[in-house]
Amino acid sequence: MTAPFPELVYYSSKSGNTHRFITRLGLSATKLPEEQDQFVNMTEPFVLVCPTYADGEGRGAVPKAVIRFLNNPDNRKFILGVIGTGNRNFGETYALSGRIIAEKCKVPLLYTFELAGTDTDIVRVRSGLETLGRSQCSTAA
Amino acid sequence: MKDMLETVVPKAINWNRLEDEKDLEVWNRLTVNFWLPEKVPLSNDLPSWGTLTDHEKQLTIRVFTGLTLLDTIQNSVGAPALMPDAITPHEESVLTNIAFMEAVHARSYSSIFSTLCSTKEIDEAFRWSAENPHLQAKAKAILDTYAPGNDPLKRKIASVFLESFLFYSGFYLPMYWSSRAKLTNTADLIRLIIRDEAVHGYYIGYKFQRGYEKLDEAGQQELKDYAFSLMFELYDIENKYTEELYDELGLTEDVKVFLHYNANKALQNLGFEALFPPEVSEVNAAILAALSPDSENHDFFSGSGSSYVIGKAVATEDEDWDF
After folding, report:
1. In whole angstroms, how large is the CA radius of gyration of chain A?
2. Does any domain span residue A123?
3. Which residues is A81 bridged to in the sheet?
4. How many CA atoms lie within 13 A of B241 on its CB side?
5. Segments making up each domain of chain B, as ranges
6. Strand arrangement, sheet containing A109-114
7. Which residue of B has its CA nearest to A125?
8. Would A36 be classed as within a structural domain?
């Protein structure tokens, strides 16, 4: 058995916060493409990491690229959970995309963090993903 | 050279042909978020204001004049100084929105004052803001960077530090009152300002990153050193400012943690790593809850926070989701 971590899928705009988090995390991850004609099709369980782009009313929280990805039922079949990111300064819409996806896909919101995350966030997410990966292995076995 | 520039044909801005999608994204976000202080029923805070001691009232008014000064600078100098550096015409438009909203913010504090305070108290606080050495020192440090002829990317660094760091020694206080169920309408207004400043810091930080990535390694290193040394300089001033304001209420150490947390976020807006380690940057939960009510931090991994979330209606555009 290889590393117990589940696969990661993430979106990051050009401001790059989520990308920097994923890089520091150092785990295998697929970045969702911005281009409308490119698709990612998952064939194994994964965790989605998604930033929030909501206006004051919460509209537009989930990036279009993520919606396109989740509109594929096969991708929804493999999603284990979502990690939402954002900025607390946006008040009630903080990490809203994570909450929306959790509800829409009926999976747990695993964690939330701000911007590119802190060292504490990295440690917690790594160990959380490891636990999740292990439990996946034992369920599969 | 100047004559040559003047012969360039003036161009009308075409929003249907974007060079940078982020300009439209941020324009939309800022314009949808537009607000005026009249929207907030500040006078409902009068009974609560009456429960504060004279010292607490004076502190609150002083903190708000300090914030007014920063908004005034950003409105009249900061955002306009960034305009000639704009890479796209759409960026210039976004900056005009930012400049105007800073004027709305500065104007809002006066609405709070006229609702809650006497003319004498207001005048005293504005006099204080003109004379306070720490407040003036931070204003000067930023204004020096904005000066004509300075490096455009250094101006963006200063601007992000103002938007994402320098305001927070002041924003702490209304969040603190709000966490104790005081001045809650004022806190609602401040949250609108915080939301705007977060978009400003994000956008200017984003534009900084676009310029930074074009530099060679030596240029990047020089700029990064500049950013961290300016942060240290401002942090030093903020510490003294914080002590002077908050020592009497015993809140100084708590405010300093909030400063670390926001300094880290400001650096992240620029694409840099955090400066302060987690153990000195973990903000008291009551203040975090005041910042983003109804959005507890979720940590399903370690069993805190609720796992399956919200019964509340979520704002999605249904046509975007097939399922």
Report:
1. 14
2. yes
3. A47
4. 29
5. 42-293
6. A29-31, A7-10, A46-50, A79-86, A109-114
7. B301
8. yes
- The dihedral over CA atoms of B282, B288, B291, B293, expressed in degrees to the nearest 10, equals 160
CA B146/CA B110 separation, integer angstroms: 26
Q: Find chain A residues with C-beta within 8 A of B269's C-beta.
A: 115
In the predicted model, is pLDDT for residue B195 greater than 70? yes
Percent of chain A predicted with pLDDT > 70: 96
Distance CA B55, CA B74 (A): 29
What are the tokens at B250? Answer: 């015993």
Distance CA B148, CA B20 (A): 26
- Sorted by sequence, the CB contacts under 8 Å of residue B303 that are 6+ apart come out as none
d(CA B90, CA A112): 32
Identify the CATH number of the domain in which residue A115 sits: 3.40.50.360
Q: Which of A91, A120, A128 sits opposite B291 (nearest CB)?
A: A91
β-strand partners of A46: A7, A79
Identify whether A24 is part of a domain.
Answer: yes
Q: From B165, B159, B12, select the one nearest B82 (Cα to Cα).
A: B159
Q: Do A67 and B309 touch (CB under 8 A)?
A: no
Count of domains observed in chain A: 1
> Is B71 assigned a ligand-binding role in the annotation?
yes
The tens digit of pLDDT for each residue in B103-159 reads 999 999 999 999 999 999 999 999 999 999 999 999 999 999 999 889 999 999 999
pTM for this predicted structure: 0.91
**3-class DSSP assignment, residue B238:** helix
B18 contact partners, CB below 8 Å, separation of at least 6: B24, B88, B90
CB atoms B278 and A118 under 8 Å: yes
B314, A81: Cβ pair inside 8 Å? Answer: no
What is the per-residue pLDDT across A99-126, written as a single tens digit (0 to 9) for each?
999 999 999 999 999 999 999 999 999 9
Residues of B in contact with A96 (CB under 8 A): 295, 314-315
- B75: tokens are 């409105």
pLDDT at A135: 86
Q: What is the pLDDT of residues B59-113, one digit of tens each?
A: 999 999 999 999 999 999 999 999 999 999 999 999 999 999 999 999 999 999 9
Selected from 3.50.50.60, 1.10.620.20, 1.25.40.20, 1.10.3210.10, the CATH number assigned to the domain covering B42-293 reads: 1.10.620.20
Q: Are the beta carbons of A27 and A61 closer than 8 angstroms?
A: no
**Of residues B134, B112, B111, B154, the one with CA closest to residue B244:** B134
Q: Which domain holds residue A129?
A: 7-135
